[in-house]
Design brief:
CATH architecture of chain A: 3-Layer(aba) Sandwich
Strand content of chain A: 15-25%
CATH class of chain A: Alpha Beta
Oligomer: homodimer
Number of helices of chain A: 10
């Protein structure tokens, strides 16, 4: 059995976890030999950055060895979690038991803070991509970036593309297309794709810095490292 | 305050609810005057079609009057819920208090079963789209379909497109593009868009019929109406 394990922690962005979880859950229905679990510190409701609370299916202590470990991201709570040594230890231990380690959005900052992205090409949410370099990774602005056994996606909604890519690698392109069909993933963004030039993401750098300073106010050494 | 209310019920497909919830949650952070809630029968963990359980933020009895009510879909549990008179009553009552009623995926079958789509153009997951006609609606194969105050999306992942469209209508295209930017919704399906001809969805009609018969085995009158 290949288990795809998704990490849950307080305050995350639920779409970061649910996009790839839905893809792999569909895979597990179509193809024997796959299952999905959601792993947290305790099996109890945890807040997200929406009004929805999520409840994991397993704890870190009771999880089976995963084939793949996927870490979702979020906003301020995820930035603060870069200083959560207990969570980072959980990630290091679980990653050591996994054959593939992945992330969606700022989940890559947690992998990076855990020391798991040193020397690796990786991506994150565009607003925080450059922080990866502070942890010894090479930021790459692609929808998903695979470097050996580490695969990291761009922000939030990129998790569905990363997951479909992985399904294609694991179970073949035909199966991946079937998962895509059942999830009716035939995107029609009403205003087209992102026009990066018009969006001018650089204008949000001060906002990103401010969020980072607030989130890590109690962790001056880490903040210094990330803003130097 | 314009409240966007998402309906939660047991066994739903979490991506159906989380895609548009994340869009409107981002709107509520960017623009004053909007908030999001998740409404269920009780504020307690409910199963989904993944290992994740979700907890709503409000009950039907305590919810404020919503501006918009959005009903997510799912597989067998949603088909069975077409016979859940208590849930259908909740939907009728909440819809009567809303200015806009929407659905994602087979959520439209619940709106239809509640009598809310009679005479309306509507969509659903491709596998069950034709069932809408049995409830007096006109099935339309578009990513989202608006007919007066009723807006229904295609399957699962179509909720993000519907939600961005609504944000554009409510708060303007620039704001919708900003929400899209922050969710980094710049889709790159690794195998391209769905090739509907190659996918040949008609081949799954027997599978859809079988699921429907199983889900409504205890409700022969409704089953007869839907399969006649």
């Amino acid at each position: 059995m290949k288990t795809i394990a998704f990490v849950q922690y307080p305050g995350l962005t639920p779409l970061d976890i649910v996009d790839p979880l839905q893809v792999f859950s569909e895979l597990s229905r179509l193809v024997p030999g796959y299952d999905t679990i959601v792993v947290g510190e305790r099996i109890e409701p945890m807040a997200t950055d929406t009004p929805l609370c999520l409840v994991p299916s397993h704890t870190f202590d009771t999880m089976p060895d995963p084939y793949a470990l996927i870490v979702p991201g979020g906003t301020a709570p995820t930035l603060a979690a870069m200083a959560d040594e207990k969570l980072l230890d959980r990630l290091r231990t679980a990653a050591a038991r996994s054959q593939l380690v992945g992330s969606v959005c700022t989940g890559s900052l947690l992998l990076a803070a855990a020391g798991l992205l040193e020397g690796r090409r990786a991506n994150s949410h565009w607003m925080y991509r450059n922080l990866l370099a502070k942890f010894g990774a090479t930021p790459v602005a692609e929808r998903w970036v695979q470097d050996d056994y580490v695969i990291t996606a761009a922000g939030v909604s990129a998790g569905i593309d990363l997951a479909l890519h992985l399904v294609g690698e694991l179970a073949g392109h035909d199966t991946a297309r079937k998962v895509q069909l059942f999830l009716e993933y035939d995107p029609k963004p009403p205003f087209g794709p992102i026009d990066w030039e018009a969006a001018n993401p650089g204008q949000y750098a001060p906002q990103g810095q401010k969020r980072l300073r607030q989130a890590l106010a109690d962790h001056p050494a880490l903040l210094e490292r990330l803003t130097a």
